[in-house]
Amino acid sequence: MPPVVRPHRALLALALLLAAPGAGAAGPLLYLDTFVVSTSREECLRDMRRMLEEAGLTGRITPVTFTDARGRRLQDGWDAHHPQLDLSASVKCVPTDETGALGVAGRDPEATWRLYGELHRRLQKL
What we know:
This protein has about 130 residues and is an alpha+beta fold. The protein has a single domain, classed as Sirohaem synthase, central domain (Double Stranded RNA Binding Domain, 2-Layer Sandwich), CATH 3.30.160.110. The chain has a six-stranded antiparallel sheet with strand order 1-2-6-5-4-3. The termini are close together. The N terminus is likely disordered.
């Protein structure tokens, strides 16, 4: 059964998403979105990685982790970068809260908006 991920148009300011590479003095554009996660963390992470790769963010994809109350390092997202353009995206899956977040950052307004639109459309199709 395919996962049910329904995007929402609400903005969510996550420090994780603001830490995208290139978020320095030139002030890149940053688009944020939230969505509902109704799958396991593993399924959400698998789907999000595939979505990032299919959108062309194959330059570098690194896991985002946190330490839980028991001291375990767990993955809850991905940071991904475009191989040639100054564009990056971060996704976070929090199935215990049934929430997820998407952030896209870049210096070029048109390229950043196109990538955000592409990822937003892909979220709607999941």
